[in-house]
TrEMBL record:
<dbReference type="Pfam" id="PF00412">
    <property type="entry name" value="LIM"/>
</dbReference>
<keyword id="KW-0862">Zinc</keyword>
<protein>
    <recommendedName>
        <fullName>LIM domain only protein 3</fullName>
    </recommendedName>
</protein>
<dbReference type="GO" id="GO:0045944">
    <property type="term" value="P:positive regulation of transcription by RNA polymerase II"/>
</dbReference>
<dbReference type="GO" id="GO:0005634">
    <property type="term" value="C:nucleus"/>
</dbReference>
<dbReference type="GO" id="GO:0140297">
    <property type="term" value="F:DNA-binding transcription factor binding"/>
</dbReference>
<keyword id="KW-0440">LIM domain</keyword>
<dbReference type="InterPro" id="IPR001781">
    <property type="entry name" value="Znf_LIM"/>
</dbReference>
<dbReference type="GO" id="GO:0046872">
    <property type="term" value="F:metal ion binding"/>
</dbReference>
<keyword id="KW-0479">Metal-binding</keyword>
<dbReference type="GO" id="GO:0003713">
    <property type="term" value="F:transcription coactivator activity"/>
</dbReference>
<feature type="domain" description="LIM zinc-binding">
    <location>
        <begin position="86"/>
        <end position="148"/>
    </location>
</feature>
<keyword id="KW-0677">Repeat</keyword>
<dbReference type="InterPro" id="IPR050945">
    <property type="entry name" value="LMO_RBTN_TF"/>
</dbReference>
<feature type="domain" description="LIM zinc-binding">
    <location>
        <begin position="22"/>
        <end position="84"/>
    </location>
</feature>
Amino acid sequence: MQQREKSFGIQMLSVQPDTKPKGCAGCNRKIKDRYLLKALDKYWHEDCLKCACCDCRLGEVGSTLYTKANLILCRRDYLRLFGVTGNCAACSKLIPAFEMVMRAKDNVYHLDCFACQLCNQRFCVGDKFFLKNNMILCQTDYEEGLMKEGYAPQVR
Ligand SMILES: [Zn+2]
Ligand SMILES: [Zn+2]
Ligand SMILES: [Zn+2]
Ligand SMILES: [Zn+2]
């Protein structure tokens, strides 16, 4: 299940001096600057199109904005608030982007799911863990597995 991101392009337009000034959708004042931003079919001062969370000027940050629930957000905040990190490689459930995760190679895990999949040992920061056939293993189980021939770990 893939969530589509709601991103919208931002265009920077130079204002033709002989046209009627457009109203800014942010502050409702007329835009008399040399440049204006066009986004979401509205016009904005460069200063007025800002991320609702971090106040960064969206015209500068890569020319896309994200909206959700009437908020205008930069990509980073959008993903932080509404995005998903991916599926936990252990329990295959979605991990919301704001949740702390453990990462191993390309896999992400819930903190609670990040344990040796054979003996359930949890890992602390700095502990060694191993990935074999996409399973997380503690050092003991990993080394034991290496010693056995035809090693086939059982998924619980
Ligand atoms: Zn404005
Ligand atoms: Zn932001
Ligand atoms: Zn999980
Ligand atoms: Zn183990």
